[in-house]
Every structure is written in structure tokens, then in C-alpha cells.
Request: fold
Amino acid sequence: MTTPPKIRSEMERELYLRVIDLEARVRELEKRLKSTRAAAKTAAERKALAVEKKHKPRPRCPGCTLELPPGRRGVSCVWCGFRFDAVPPWPAKRRRR
Reply:
């Protein structure tokens, strides 16, 4: 705590004490805000990572390389008409553990 300047009246003394109290409150609020921001940032990062992990790449047409729509795959690409039986099937990717 700093040493108080020479105080001329009782009102100046009260104001000086109130300013010191307000400065302490501001420091406490800044500390809380900093910890809250850090917690929110890490929570958002974890959520973003979880979303990324859930995303599974869709199969693509070997002819036009566009993503195939969800559902049962037909004989040909819905976008370009490429016939899937024209090429050998792609080997399945191994799962990482």
C-alpha cells in the first residue's frame, strides 16, 4: 500500500480511501476476467478439436473428385456420370489407433 499524501480535510481522506478500495476492486476484476477468458479459450479449443475429430471425409468420385452424396452408392457418379466399375475399387484405409 502506498503512503497517503498529506490530507487537508476529512473529505479528502474519505475520497483517498475510496480510490484505494476501487483500485483493489479493479485489480481483482481484471484477474477474474483473465482467468475466465483463459478457461473459455481452452474450452473453445477443445470443442473445435472434438468437431474436427468427428468429421469423416466423404468418399469422392475418381472421375470428377467431387464428394459423393450420403446414402447408398449407385453404379455411376451423380455429378459426372463416371462409372465406378471402370476402375478397381480403392483399398480401404487402415484405422489408426
